[in-house]
């Protein structure tokens, strides 16, 4: 599934360019010049690249995973004599006039993807995809790794700037390059760090407050007790141990695999 959105394609290329540049500055200009002979040099280089690997896998999965699109019907549906408020299991289903199909509760239409997406959160240009039921976990992992990478970069930059002049055997030109690259990477890391942390906070907040379900309950009438926060997080991240939630290797729960076309006619 590839969405032909120029803004999304630009954001993806910009993301990968920023990651490659950060790796180049950290390894070539910080580690090689300030801690090449210490075990900390190798430790930081390996740690930095492990985070980049995890970030890239979670980002790739968030980009290519189907966020939970509603399949279009094979033939046109006649909506004229169907009353969706008639009760029954599918009373909460709504009609999307753009897709001309039925959609389950919490599904919304995305104008960029041109589809209805199950439990759609928002369309994110940074993954050129919707954040929905099936890829929200990878999107959150991506945000966490961007935050960790930005934090690690900032620590290494501060270390490099403090230590680069201690033994001034370095060429002036080399020192200027180190400082220039460090300042650019500091700006990049600060911006990406703040941006990803803010979105991560909103994402976690929306999961544990079960926002869309609350709106759903208001419409329906019968009170559905609040689910525990861990149960809500498990719905998004899977049933495995919470530590495993950080690894971009397991799939989302199969619990959502309900039939897509499941309405009364
Ligand atoms: Zn739709
Ligand atoms: Zn979308």
Bound molecules: zinc ion
Structural class: mainly alpha
The run of helices and strands is HHEEEEEEHHHH
The overall average pLDDT, rounded, is: 82
Gap between N and C termini: 31 Å
Q: Radius of gyration from the CA trace?
A: 23 Å
Number of strands: 6
What shape does the CA trace take? elongated
Spatial order of the strands forming the largest sheet = 1-2
What layout of secondary structure does this protein have?
Layout: H1 6-34, H2 39-64, E1 94-96, E2 101-103, E3 108-110, E4 115-117, E5 122-124, E6 129-131, H3 136-163, H4 172-208, H5 211-220, H6 229-237
Antiparallel strand pairs: 1-2, 3-4, 5-6
Helix pairs in contact: 1-2, 1-3, 1-4, 2-3, 3-4
Residues 96, 98-99, 109, 116 line the site of one zinc ion.
Domain Palmitoyltransferase DHHC: 93-220
Subcellular location: Membrane
Transmembrane segments: 7-32, 38-57, 142-162, 178-202
């Amino acid at each position: 599934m590839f969405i032909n959105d120029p803004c999304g394609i630009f954001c993806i290329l910009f993301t990968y360019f920023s990651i490659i540049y950060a790796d180049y500055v950290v390894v070539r200009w910080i580690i090689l010049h300030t801690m090449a002979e210490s075990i900390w040099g190798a430790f930081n280089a390996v740690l930095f690249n492990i985070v980049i690997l995890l970030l890239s896998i979670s980002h790739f999965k968030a980009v290519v995973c189907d966020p939970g699109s509603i399949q279009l019907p094979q033939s046109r549906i006649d909506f004229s004599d169907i009353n969706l408020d008639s009760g029954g299991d599918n009373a909460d289903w709504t009609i999307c006039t753009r897709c001309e199909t039925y959609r389950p509760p919490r599904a919304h239409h995305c104008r960029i993807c041109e589809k209805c997406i199950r439990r759609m959160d928002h369309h994110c240009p940074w993954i050129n995809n919707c954040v929905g039921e099936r890829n929200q976990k990878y999107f959150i992992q991506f945000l966490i790794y961007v935050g960790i990478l930005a934090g690690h970069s900032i620590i290494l930059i501060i270390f490099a700037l403090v230590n680069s002049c201690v033994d001034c055997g370095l060429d002036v030109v080399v020192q200027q390059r180190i400082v220039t690259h460090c300042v650019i990477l500091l700006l990049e890391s600060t911006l990406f760090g703040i941006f990803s942390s803010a979105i991560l906070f909103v994402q976690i907040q929306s999961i544990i407050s079960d926002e869309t379900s609350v709106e759903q309950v208001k419409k329906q009438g019968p009170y559905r007790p609040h689910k525990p926060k861990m149960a809500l997080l498990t719905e998004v991240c899977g049933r495995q141990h919470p530590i495993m939630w950080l690894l971009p290797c397991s799939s989302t729960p199969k619990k959502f695999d309900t039939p897509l076309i499941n309405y009364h006619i």
